[in-house]
Amino acid sequence: MYRIGELAEKLSVSTDTLRYYEKHKLLAATSRADNGYRLYNEEALRVMQFIIRAKGVGFSLNEINGLLSIKIDKASHSCADVKSFTEQKLTQVNDKIAELQCFKGSLELLVAACCGGEEEATHCSILSALENVDAINK
Amino acid sequence: MYRIGELAEKLSVSTDTLRYYEKHKLLAATSRADNGYRLYNEEALRVMQFIIRAKGVGFSLNEINGLLSIKIDKASHSCADVKSFTEQKLTQVNDKIAELQCFKGSLELLVAACCGGEEEATHCSILSALENVDAINK
DNA sequence: TTTGACCTTGGAGTATACTCCAAGCTTTAT
DNA sequence: ATAAAGCTTGGAGTATACTCCAAGGTCAAA
């Protein structure tokens, strides 16, 4: 079991963030020590990694709560509910991937086209390439 | 040229958002009409689409400003600056894509495994699958 | 010509997600 | 035994990104 500070360091987040997530029902401590200290197990670590990843790709804490509640709120959802919610999230994720592929393509084009030298960027083809970034993104 | 309301509707954002972006140097109106109304051209439309996409995949307005300033701030950056900044962003984008691929894999697994019926989700295999989501995400 | 829809500005208010602080208890090291 | 580091709570403060409002100008249609 980890104390809050240990888990925080392992995840590169603050202890305040962990307490904030507990207050907002995203992740409760696994248990409490006799002295009242929060204790977290490996499962909690994995859930936090999940939350951090989800945040990184643009899900709000509220949306992440929704994703996590599939797990937590078992009895209150039917299979049909869960399936349709999950399909919806899958569509969202696919859309996000598609957008990022566009960014990736544009940026790769820019990197490939740029001379990388010391002259002013005014004369660098990377900039003209970026000016067409939206066209590329389609 | 579009008036602010027309552009806002085309993009499904509020006019307040467009004025907010102008105030925060993300996108100025292309010009002003004689009556003081903001006017936007097709280029502005494309820049806004770019901003909206970037936001959707988790870039902050500040980061987006950085991306846009490659375009705007030509004379103040060398080619080497621009190239290294762009390569850094590319790494970020690749990381985000990898994370989303994990989500996608997990969610697809869940959708495929779920019966989709009316019974309580307690008995649905989609949930047990989700409990291993972090393992799947690796 | 006047009603309604649209635009202007500046500034205040809100939601989200932290982040910091005070006051105090616990534990570890010297 | 006492200091330093770590934990507790509740609550206040901050950054980001809007969102709304007031007071007023503009414009097209009835």
Query: Total helix count of chain A?
Result: 7
SSE succession of chain A: EHHEEHHHHH
| The first-level CATH class name of the largest domain in chain A | Mainly Alpha
Largest sheet of chain A: 3 strands, antiparallel
The gross shape of chain A turns out to be flat
Number of separate strands of chain A: 3
Percent range of helical residues of chain A = 55-70%
CATH architecture of the largest domain in chain A: Orthogonal Bundle
Number of discrete domains of chain A: 2
Structural class of chain A: mainly alpha
Strand content of chain A: 5-15%
Q: Which residue ranges of chain A are poorly predicted, with pLDDT under 50 across at least 5 consecutive positions?
A: 134-138
CATH topology assignment of the largest domain in chain A: Multidrug-efflux Transporter Regulator, Chain: A, Domain 2
**Largest interface, Cβ cutoff 8 Å:** A-B, 61 and 61 residues
What separation lies between the terminal Cα atoms of chain A? 49 Å
Report strand order across the widest sheet of chain A. 1-3-2
Oligomeric state of the chains present here? homodimer
Rg of chain A over CA atoms, rounded to whole Å, is: 22 Å
Structural overview:
- Two copies of one chain form a homodimer.
- With 138 residues, chain A is mainly alpha-helical.
- Chain A has two domains: 1-76, Orthogonal Bundle (Multidrug-efflux Transporter Regulator, Chain: A, Domain 2); 86-138.
- Chain A has seven helices and three strands.
- The first copy, chain A, has helices at 4-11, 15-23, 42-56, 61-72, 79-113, 125-131, 133-137; strands at 2-3, 31-32, 38-40.
- In chain A, strands 1-3-2 form a three-stranded antiparallel sheet.
- In chain A, helix 5 packs antiparallel against helix 6 (125-131).
- Chains A and B meet through helix 3, helix 5, helix 6 and helix 7 of A and helix 3, helix 5, helix 6 and helix 7 of B.
- Chain A binds a DNA duplex (30 and 30 nucleotides) through residues 3-5, 14-17, 19-20, 24, 33, 35-38, 55, 60-62.
